[in-house]
Amino acid sequence: MYVTIELDEVEAASRMAGQACGGSWEDVMRGRVDRWRMEDAIELPRLFMLEGERATLDNIAPTVAAARMEFPGEPVLVVVDYLQILGDGTVADSERTRIATVIERLRRLAKDLGVVVLDLSQTSRAAAKSLRDGDLVGADTPQPRGRSPRRSSAPAT
Questions:
Q1: pLDDT tens for residues 78-107?
Q2: Dist CA 140 CA 66 (whole Å)
Q3: Taking the model in full, what pTM does it have?
Q4: Nearest 5°: phi and psi at 117?
Q5: Fewer beta carbons within 10 Å, N or C terminal of the chain?
């Protein structure tokens, strides 16, 4: 299942088709990929999409249930693209708190539904530089008792 607010179903399918055809999504959207090649590349009967206004946390569980009814016994992967703009219907004091709430709800969904959830997220250039420089990851985030922030193992470039 692919959950996206930024892309509509046509754009997401175009990106997938472009990748599968060795081209770009722009090539697909502009008709520069043979139609038969594109149709063959996006023959993904097990792909369920929640896009636009339907891309909410509340719609994930019913969509997983629909996927399980249609494909019993098959594993389910939920991809959230991207985490920072996924709404959870609540108002938080800060963006950080809102995102933490979304992450916690996705974690519970994964556990309760028995699915794998892949959250795609965007980071700022400053945060990426901190990781490259080996700064403490999560130093400004409260840690569970007995745990301390870990140092990044990202190689310096």
A1: 998 877 777 666 666 777 788 888 889 999
A2: 40
A3: 0.65
A4: -115, 125
A5: C
